[in-house]
C-alpha cells in the first residue's frame, strides 16, 4: 500500500457536500504520513476543505493506472493551517518533492485510516497476469502520449 501511494502521488478524494451530494476531487499531493495516516495539501481545494470542516468523513482512492490495482482508504480528516503539525506536513511534502511553500499550501489534511480495501480491475478476470494487464495499459498510454506529441489529440 505504501509503495502504491508513494509512487502514484495522485489520490481521488471523496467528501460530502452540505446538501448531501458527493464531491470528488483529485489531489496530486497525496502521500503517506505514517502507517496509520495519509496526507495531502490544500493548494486549491476550498470545497474539499469546506466539506471536511462540516463532516470529516473522507475516502481516498489511489490506483496505479498501468497495473489497474490500488486501494480505497476510508477515514477521518483533520485540518491544519498553522502550528507544529502544519509545519511538519509542509516539511514532509517538501521532502517528497512537492512545492510546499506556506504561501501555496493553505491547509495540510491528515487522514486517520479506519478501513482499507484493495481495488483490483476486472481486467484480471479470467486469470490475466499483472504483466499482461500492465503491457496492455502501457501500450494505451504510450499511444496517447504519441498522439499528443504529434498534435493528434
CATH first level of the largest domain: Mainly Beta
Compute the number of helices. 4
- Share of helix, binned: 25-40%
What is the CATH fold-level name of the largest domain?
Answer: Pnp Oxidase, Chain A
Span between termini: 33 Å
User: What is the name of the CATH superfamily of the largest domain?
Assistant: Electron Transport, Fmn-binding Protein, Chain A
Strand order of the largest sheet: 2-1-5-6-7-4-3
The count of β-strands is 7
Q: Tell the overall outline.
A: globular
Q: Overall pLDDT, averaged?
A: 95
CATH architecture annotation name of the largest domain: Roll
Largest sheet: 7 strands, antiparallel
Helix vs. strand class? alpha+beta
Poorly predicted regions are none
* SSE arrangement, N to C: HEEEEHEEHEH
- Kindly give the count of domains: 2
Q: Tell me the fraction of residues in β-strands, as a range.
A: 35-45%
What do these coordinates show?
The chain contains four helices and seven strands; from the N terminus they run αββββαββαβα. It has helices at residues 2-8, 46-54, 83-95, 130-149, and strands spanning 11-16, 22-27, 31-34, 37-42, 57-64, 69-80, 107-120. The protein has two domains: 2-120, Roll (Pnp Oxidase, Chain A), CATH 2.30.110.10; 124-153. With 153 residues, the protein is of the alpha+beta class.
Task: Briefly say what this structure is.
The protein is 32% helix and 37% strand. With 153 residues, the protein is of the alpha+beta class.
Topology, element by element:
Blueprint: H1 2-8, E1 11-16, E2 22-27, E3 31-34, E4 37-42, H2 46-54, E5 57-64, E6 69-80, H3 83-95, E7 107-120, H4 130-149
Antiparallel strand pairs: 1-2, 1-5, 3-4, 4-7, 5-6, 6-7
Amino acid at each position: 500500500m505504501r509503495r502504491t501511494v508513494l509512487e502514484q502521488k495522485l489520490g481521488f478524494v471523496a467528501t460530502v457536500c452540505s446538501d448531501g451530494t458527493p464531491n470528488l476531487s483529485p489531489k496530486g499531493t497525496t502521500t503517506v504520513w505514517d502507517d496509520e495516516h495519509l496526507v495531502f495539501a490544500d493548494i486549491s481545494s476550498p470545497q474539499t476543505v469546506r466539506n471536511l470542516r462540516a463532516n470529516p468523513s473522507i475516502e481516498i482512492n489511489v490506483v496505479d493506472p498501468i497495473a489497474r490495482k490500488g486501494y480505497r482508504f476510508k477515514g477521518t480528516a483533520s485540518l491544519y493551517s498553522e502550528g507544529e503539525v502544519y509545519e511538519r506536513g509542509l516539511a514532509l511534502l517538501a521532502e517528497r518533492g512537492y512545492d510546499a511553500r506556506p504561501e501555496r499550501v493553505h491547509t495540510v489534511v491528515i487522514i486517520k485510516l479506519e478501513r482499507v480495501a484493495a481495488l483490483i480491475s476486472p481486467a484480471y478476470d479470467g486469470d490475466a497476469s499483472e504483466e499482461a494487464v500492465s503491457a496492455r495499459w502501457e501500450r494505451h498510454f504510450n499511444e496517447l502520449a504519441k498522439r499528443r506529441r504529434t498534435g493528434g489529440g
